[in-house]
């Protein structure tokens, strides 16, 4: 029997986009590999996937800002699985501070997680995909890369804009290897973690006043788009950015 395609989803053990993507790709038949920096959540997520789908799933404790650890994990996946078909770069971090008051630590941490982490996983996944002459990468950016607003913070906005440039150049470099690289720019996709970042007034009236569809986004909305972009029906799509914001900020 032909082996399942392998999908790597970093930062997928929480309750947000990564978790929904891991679940959706598992439902699509992928052999999903989950990574996260939270050991307990990682174990629980992997056990849940295995229980629901009746097959074993792999997981690795991983901080995407640690380049050597990223290299080690991706190398191990390739050796154990014999392939790597899909990479979803989901890891993200943010702390909102005005530029005039921002600490160097906030700036560096945000770029390390959101931009450098995306580069590291791509850096070590791409040679594997090049050798097999196939692959699909989806990088999770944000409408923060476009908006003129103080809502997201300069570090996060700059990192997510960098992700878009990285996506486009990688797509240009790797199309000849049968590899497609795209990005998704979500708007407000609700999960409880956002309550630690944004004040209550940020959420009040959002669905009624900003969303054109009368609700905020759900992680499953993004997961559905990821599923399409890594599938065969998206075979002519690369170097693109897809907005998913309920019409709050149309991309393109």
Approximate helicity band:
40-55%
**If strands are numbered along the chain, what order do they take across the biggest sheet?**
3-2-1-4-5-6-7
What is the number of helical segments per DSSP (H or I, 4+ residues)? 8
Strand content: 5-15%
What does this structure look like?
This protein has 252 residues and is α/β, with parallel strands linked by helices. The model has no long low-confidence stretch (mean pLDDT 93). The chain starts with 5 loop residues before the first strand and ends in an 8-residue tail after the last strand. It has eight helices and seven strands, in the order βαβαβαβαβαβαααβ. The longest helix has 29 residues, at 104-132. Strands 3-2-1-4-5-6-7 form a seven-stranded parallel β-sheet, with helices on both faces.
Brief synopsis:
The protein is an alpha/beta fold.
Structural topology:
Elements: E1 6-9, H1 17-27, E2 31-36, H2 39-53, E3 58-61, H3 67-81, E4 86-89, H4 104-132, E5 135-140, H5 154-174, E6 179-186, H6 200-203, H7 206-209, H8 219-229, E7 241-244
Helix pairs in contact: 1-8, 3-4, 4-5
């Amino acid at each position: 029997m032909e082996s399942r395609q392998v999908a790597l989803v970093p930062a997928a053990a929480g309750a947000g986009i990564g978790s929904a993507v891991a679940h959706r790709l598992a439902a699509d038949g992928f052999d999903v590999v989950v990574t996260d920096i939270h050991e307990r959540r990682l174990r629980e997520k992997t056990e849940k996937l295995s229980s629901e789908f009746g097959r074993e799933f792999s997981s690795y404790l991983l901080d995407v800002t640690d380049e050597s650890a990223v290299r080690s994990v991706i190398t191990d996946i390739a050796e154990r699985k014999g392939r790597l078909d899909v990479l979803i770069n989901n890891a993200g971090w943010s702390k909102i501070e005005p530029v005039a008051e921002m600490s160097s630590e906030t700036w560096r941490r945000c770029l390390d997680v959101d931009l450098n982490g995306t580069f590291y996983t791509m850096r070590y996944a791409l040679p594997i995909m090049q050798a097999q002459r196939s692959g699909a990468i989806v990088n999770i950016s944000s409408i923060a890369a476009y908006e003129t607003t103080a809502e997201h913070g300069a570090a996060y906005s700059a990192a997510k804009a960098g992700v878009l440039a990285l996506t486009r150049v990688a797509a240009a470099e790797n199309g000849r290897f049968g590899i497609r690289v795209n990005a998704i720019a979500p708007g407000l996709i609700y999960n409880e973690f956002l309550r630690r970042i944004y004040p209550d007034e940020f959420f009040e009236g959002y669905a009624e006043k900003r969303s054109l569809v009368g609700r905020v986004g759900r992680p499953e909305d993004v997961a559905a788009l990821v599923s399409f972009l890594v599938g065969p029906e998206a075979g002519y799509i690369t170097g693109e950015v897809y907005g998913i914001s309920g019409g709050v900020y149309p991309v393109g």
